[in-house]
Each structure stands twice: as structure tokens, then as C-alpha cells.
Amino acid sequence: MYKVLVANRDEYDTKGIEWLLKSSMNGWQIESAQDETELIRKLESLQPDLLIFELDLINEERFISFIKTIQIIGPDLIALTMEATFSQAKRAIDMGVSDLILKPISADILLKSARKIHRRYQMNNRIAERMPSQKAEKVFNYQELFLEGPHPAEPCVSIGIKTENPLELPKLYKFLESYPFQKTVHSFILSDMVLIVAEKTNAAWKEESVRFMRDWQETSAEQVAISICTGQQDHNTVRGHYLANRKLMELTFYRGFNQIIEENSSPEWQSIDPFLSPEEQSRWIDFLNQSDLEGIKSWFHEEFLVLAEPYPEPGLIRIRLTSILAQIRRHMKTFRLAGGEMEKEYLRLFQTILYSPLIYRVISEMISFISYIFETIRSDKKLKLELTDRVLFFIETNYWDSAVTLERAADYADRNPNYISSLLAKKYGKSFRELLNETRIRQSAKLLIESEMSIKEIASVCGFRNQQYFNKVFSKIKGMPPNQFRKGMFKTSV
């Protein structure tokens, strides 16, 4: 029986998911948990095949314990989240989730994801049942991949084989079952690769791998990458070999497939700041406002497609790409494009950023989506902004710049500054400076609540030249100084 555990704080959502799965998937055993403690307890008692859980249900203190538990039990994971933010994306990547689904939950998307995972589960079981009985007596087993055990009696060699499309792994595994390696090997199908383990001999494993890749290409158009670990580095356990192969395979994000990666190529990742700098944010605002697709293509190429070793850690690159996606999202909202078909394309792109195995494919998808946005704006006259909306848009996208003036806003709107000033007074009863300060204070209040930045730093990134003036404006608009506002919000949250 296929066992599913649903973990969600919201009782209404939990019951809805349970009803949806029970009514659509006959024969599944479905249980639920509504807090972190109950989740850990039921993971250990039920040992589910699939865990559908709210990402924020796991707090930082229990995160490591939770990861160890799911590594031992090994369920497939579907995570739920309220926001498509870079921090949630990184957390999901660290957990190894199969899908990250945004709330409110779409029944179709959830069912499609659950069915896809279930089909993979059934296929793996059928493959295991067809294995000849003599293969049951293995020197190596699945448990050794996930639990650190003693060194094997004999040194071993491991080979990882990864397909560009993970759904092709069962086909690859079946091909391996009958493949005539020169030495006896033991194969393990995993969610991201097939791992081969063999006792260490003098066999020429690189030549074997080249031969295998050539033979595979004669039967399939699916590209593969192969990693080889001979035990030269410090990974003498089976789990050490598995982790070493996974690390080598991360290089395919930059290098692509149809290649053999040897142990001495093990990456040493370069640390980068995944967030866009204020200058980069300003540049992206200009790219989008001016519909400068060629400028965007050039920027992507320089930033991501000509990288050399040491490469940035792929997870940080994915976070950086979600930061760019946030800028695109803001542009969509400005032109009221956050909905309908455009929304579906946006969410699909978000999934591509999280899970695509190739960086050039992610960049290609992002450029196509941006081009789609530009073409939609150009072709739909209803999306043209009114004059006052253009000025507000300018404020929203430039409030962080301490040099912003009415004259610059007027240049952007292509109107006389006095005319802009009178128009704003007539429509909003406020001056340009008042609207600008309100935007700056709104953004600074958000940072006071959500970040640990100092008040001086917040004042600077929100466009104020000095903290004293920031305190004065903040007190006027919010009725209290920023330090009191932060303390008051902290007490409320506690």
C-alpha cells in the first residue's frame, strides 16, 4: 500500500488535501500531522512513501533532525509554501523536494505531482521485482548509501550516471541490468542518478565508461553524464562514494552532458553574494522599463554563460536568478500582468530556475519569458500607464536612490516638473516629496520588521542621506521613531 503523510498547520488545508487524495487515488493510506512534533513522530511510525508538507512547519532548530529523518526513511517530498521567495527556494533545494507548490493549492497541480511521483515509485518496484534472485545477495545495499557505515571489506570504485531528464533513469537502469561490464557491478537507481559500485580492481574504468556512453547513445537520444570515483580521495565508505559522485555531477549545471567527469575534477565552489546589488537592481529596472531585450541578453551572457572554474555554488546561482525574477515580477505587477496565462508561465519559470539541470537552459527560458512580457505590453494598449501611474512607478523603482528629484521624475514621464507637481497635488493632495518619503518609509518599515540590518543601514538603502533626517521623517509618518517601531513589532510577534 502506498503511504502518504500530509503535514500542514492549517486544518482546513490538511483536510482538503486528504479528501482530494482519497477521492482521486484509490488504495492509498493517508495520514496527517498539524505540528512539527507530530510530523516527526508520524514519519517514524508510518514511514511514508510520500510526504506533502508545509515548508514553514519545520523551524530552524529542528531542521537538521528533520533532514536526517527523511534521509533514513527516504520518502519523496512535495513542499507547500505561501511565497515564491529565494529563501524558500533555497530551503526546498536543501531538502531535496521533488516539487515546490505555491499556496493557495491548485488541485490539478498537486494531483499531477503526486501521480508523477507515484508512477516513478511503481516503476522502481517493478524493476526491483524483475531482478534475478542471485542479485539479492549483494556486497553493497541501499542502506549503505544513506547511513555512514564502516569501510567495505575491499576498496571500491563508483560510477555515477545521470540523465538530463530524470524520468529517463528507469530506462537507463534497465539498460544497465544487461550491460556487459568487464567486472561485476552493483547498480542503484536514485532520484537523480544511477550509481554503480564495484570492488576496486585494475580495470580501466574510464575506458569502460567511454564504451558505455557510446553504446547508450546508439539506443537512446537522451544525454548522459558520467562521474568516476576510484577512492583516491577521502571517501572510502559507500556513502562517501555516493556523496562524491553527487558533488561531481553538480558540474553538469555548467558543463552540460555527454562528458565524463573524473575524481580529480571535484569542484571547489566559489562563494558569491546571491543578491542583486543596488546598482544591479537599478540596471535591471532600466532594462525592463526600456524593454531592452538585447541589453538583458548581453547581461545574462556576461554573468552566467562565460563562467570559468572555480564556479559559483549552483544553489547560490539559483538564488541569484530568483532575485532577478523578483524584479521581473514587480514589472509584471506594474502593468497588471500578474494573473491568467502570464501567471502560469511565471510559475513554470520559477520551477525551471529551481530544478533545471543546465544553466544555459534556465537563461534561455528567462529570456523567452521576458520577451513574452515585452511583446504583451507593446501589443496591448490597455497596459499603457496613465501619467500619474508612471510617476508612481518611477518612485517605486527609484526610491532607494538618494539623488531622486521631481525633475528626474518629470524627465521620465516626459512632462514639465510644475505640471507633474500640480497633477499629483490634484489627484493625491500630496507633493512629489511626500509621496517619495511615504514610499521610502513603507520600505524601511518592512526592513525593520523582516531584517536584522541596523537603522543606519536601512536609512541608507531606502534613500535617506543621513539617519537623523530618516528618524525625523519616520516619526512624522509612523508616529514613533524607527527603534521604537522595531521594538513594538518584535513584542507583537512574540
UniProtKB/TrEMBL annotation:
Keywords: DNA-binding, Transcription, Transcription regulation
GO molecular function, one term: DNA-binding transcription factor activity
Example GO biological process: phosphorelay signal transduction system
Highest taxon, organism lineage: Bacteria
Domain Response regulatory positions: 3-118
Transmembrane feature ranges: none
Signal peptide boundaries: none
Keyword Plastid included in the entry's annotation: no
PROSITE patterns: HTH_ARAC_FAMILY_1 (PS00041), HTH_ARAC_FAMILY_2 (PS01124), RESPONSE_REGULATORY (PS50110)
InterPro entries for the chain: CheY-like_superfamily, Homeodomain-like_sf, HTH_AraC, HTH_AraC-typ_CS, Sig_transdc_resp-reg_receiver, Tscrpt_reg_AraC-type_HTH
SMART domains: HTH_ARAC
Domain HTH araC/xylS-type: 389-488
Pfam family, one: Response_reg
Keyword Transcription found: yes
PANTHER family referenced in this protein's UniProt entry, alphabetically: ARAC-FAMILY TRANSCRIPTIONAL REGULATOR (PTHR43280), HTH-TYPE TRANSCRIPTIONAL REGULATOR EXSA (PTHR43280:SF2)
Protein name: AraC family transcriptional regulator
Organism per entry: Sporosarcina globispora (Bacillus globisporus)
Lineage: Bacteria, Bacillati, Bacillota, Bacilli, Bacillales
